[in-house]
C-alpha cells in the first residue's frame, strides 16, 4: 500500500490520500483543503507547525496500513 513521505508535495498527495486532511486536523493543523493554502512538502508543513513530522508521518502510515 502507498505511504506518504516527508518529501511528498502537499498538492500531490492531499487528493491521493483523502483522509490525510482530517488526520492532520486531529493533530492540530489547519484544514489544507479549506484553510490557508499549503505549499511545499508535507514534512515542511508539519515541521512549520512545531510538530515532529517524522513521528506524525509514521503514525499516519501505520494507521493507513492497518485499514
Please describe the topology of this protein.
Blueprint: H1 10-13, H2 20-26, H3 42-47, H4 53-66
Helical coverage, percent range:
40-55%
H/E series: HHHH
**Coarse morphology:** globular
Number of strands: 0
Q: Total domains, how many?
A: 1
Which descriptors apply to this entry?
single chain; 67 residues; mainly alpha; globular
Structure description:
- With 67 residues, this protein is an all-alpha fold.
- It has helices spanning 10-13, 20-26, 42-47, 53-66.
- The model has no long low-confidence stretch (mean pLDDT 87).
Characterize this entry briefly:
The chain is mainly α.
